[in-house]
Amino acid sequence: MSQVLLVGSPNSGKSLLFNKLTGLNQKVANFPGITVGTHSGHCRHYPELELVDFPGVYSMHAISGEESIALDALSHALNEGDVSSVLCVVDSTRLEKGLVFALQLQELCGRYGKRLLIAANMQDVLHKHDLDFDAAGLEKAINMPVVPLSAKTGEGLETLEKVLATTPGDITAPAVASDIIGRDENAYRGEAEQLARDFGPKGDLLLKTHSRADAFFLSSFTGGVSFLLIMYFLFQSIFTWAAPVMDAVENSLLWLSSLVLPHISNSIAFDFIDEAIFGGLGAFLVFVPQIFVLTLMVGMLEDSGYLSRAAVICHRPLRAFGLTGKSFIPMLSGVACAIPGIYAARTIESPRRRWLTYLAIPLMPCSARLPVYALLISAFIPAESVLGGWVGLQGLAMFGVYLLGIMAGLLVTALVSRTIDDHGEDAPFVLEMPPYRMPSWLPLLRGAWERSKHFVTKAGPVIFWVTMVVWFLGYFPNFGADLGESWLGVLGHIIEPVFAPIGLDWKYGVAIIASFLAREVFVGTLGTLFGIEGAQDNVISLSERVQASGLSVESGFALLVFFAIAAQCVSTLAVLARETGSWKLPIQMFIGYGLFAYASALGMYHLVGALS
Predict the structure, then answer these.
(1) For each successive 10 residues of the chain (612 residues), what is the average pLDDT?
(2) Phi and psi dihedrals of 50, rounded to 5?
């Protein structure tokens, strides 16, 4: 078994190439540093080759925490791993940028006696614009194999696999006196510029095309308007596109329950399957299609190259809150899940701004909160449209609650940044603008599917065990005859005074406490409780049960605000502690955001009550 290390600069199509070579569904993104760890997989046609995908790196001179991690891992692998070759992926349309790192790698690989190959990606873009690339001339000039290919269309992949499978000969280090890190990078850059002029594509057609698009998307007016419209479209699609699939999932669960339940004779087993499995776990599964749509939309924005432009647009307003434009991507990653958002914050060079970004990410409305938002919005906001059907009220409400979480995060960072003494200068805001590209739909769909499946497999066991415990405590000792007199009812009444000021009874209090394990547990717990209480009419949806439970509008809005701000799940706190090297910040955030959420929910409860 031999290893092939896959390296290259961000936005070169490296991760997409890794997907094609291994068949794995790794995340494909269009932002520097979005890959936050190394991934491995066996080559599909040559299983004796193990490919290892490293995070994107611009050069051997690290400028971010993630680049340092990647370079350390690369040196360790070259020194101790069973590595046969290193495959450097470069963007053929931006040859100079990729060759700077490739030339540094050539010297490094030579010293370790490892073969280096160049995968010249994006050939489909060159063909589309009738541009030429002299791969043979470049290969002769730098004395290493150069394989032109397109990771998107599959062109050249078979040739690349055959080259990787061949046994490399003896490798000698280039005759360079100075060490790689000590050598002036301008020397490498000058050589890369000359190689790009001699063998790279001629013409500035691509640059002109991107400049025209940037004139619109980066304009102070049209850029800001388009950003708001795109973000609104993102959240509106969560309801519009997912609604038919959600209905199908709910009808499928009802059909399945009608097949299974009549064959269960034992009354306790019948109640458990009906109330805990179909009522609790089933209520959570209904909202999974919205996770799929959210992941698909964010991935489409990443793959198209728009997110880097959004980071530029957000840089000036984010500076007022102590952040940087680079904070936007980790924060938006936190919309899917706070954990990858925390990892993505490694790309922020300034330790101070990276720390402030850590404060903001857990307040981003992550996908685990999405089932809670969707449940409450569908219960209290009518599924109607205004402005000729262009604006849906539920999508507008979802946009508003997401905006609330974002504004809460910005408010916290603004307050904290003004209380911290900054004795050093922050690194300047420098961000590469990747080319605009049509998204690769198959990897995007695969990624959204894998993300949804991972969400279910990760949250499903937690929800299953929580619903089991909740059902057991709520069913006994009176076999579900009176939920209020059950063991769970006794415990719930003890904590009820904490949530009574915002109009929530003990059942909602129990669901909130359980949700600290994982936010999505709230829906499953509530479904189980309502299933026990209303076993005679289990055919109605959970949102209808919430409406029938007597929960007031002001309590519903207070609950939305609480979940938008309240402390994070246990997994997020653990990852944050690992990234910061201490539990101090996670504990402070858990307590501080919990109190902030409760006070905000109480204020919203009285505000809505006064308005209504």
Answers:
(1) 83 84 58 53 85 81 70 79 86 85 87 88 85 88 91 89 78 45 69 87 66 83 86 75 83 88 88 80 76 81 82 85 84 76 76 88 83 86 73 81 86 86 57 75 78 76 80 82 80 90 90 81 82 54 81 90 82 82 89 92 93 80
(2) -105, 120
- Give me the phi and psi of 397, to 5 degrees please: -65, -40
Helix (H, G, I), strand (E, B) or coil at 116: strand
DSSP state, residue 428: P
- 0.85 exceeded by the pTM? no
Cβ 218 vs Cβ 309: under 8 Å: yes
Beta bridge partners of 52: 5, 40
| Count helices and strands in the chain by DSSP H and E runs | 27, 8
Burial label for 251, CB within 10 Å (0-12, 13-18, 19+), is exposed
Rg (CA), the chain: 27
Q: Does residue 295 contact residue 452 with C-beta atoms inside 8 Å?
A: yes
- Say what the pLDDT of residue 8 is: 87
The answer to whether 120 touches 148, Cβ cutoff 8 Å, is: yes
Note whether 500 and 515 are within 8 A (CB): no
Give CA separation, 47 vs 63, 106, 199, in Å: 35, 26, 34
List all residues 6 or more positions away from 411 whose beta carbon is below 8 Å from its beta carbon. 321
Across the beta sheet with 115-121, the strand order is 39-42, 49-53, 2-8, 83-91, 115-121, 146-148
Q: For the chain, which domains are there? A: 2-203 (3.40.50.300), 440-611 (no CATH)
Task: Give, in order, the Cα–Cα distances in Å from 535 to each of 116, 279, 437, 507.
Answer: 66, 9, 53, 16
Amino acid, single-letter form, for residue 596:
F
Give the amino acid at 265. S
Which residues, in sequence order, are CB contacts of 541 under 8 Å at separation 6+? 250, 286
- For 279-339, give the DSSP string: IIIHHHHTTHHHHHHHHHHHHHHHHHTHHHHHHHHHHHHHHTTT--GGGHHHHHHHHH-HH
For 120, phi then psi, to 5°, come to -85, 95
- pLDDT at res. 207: 65
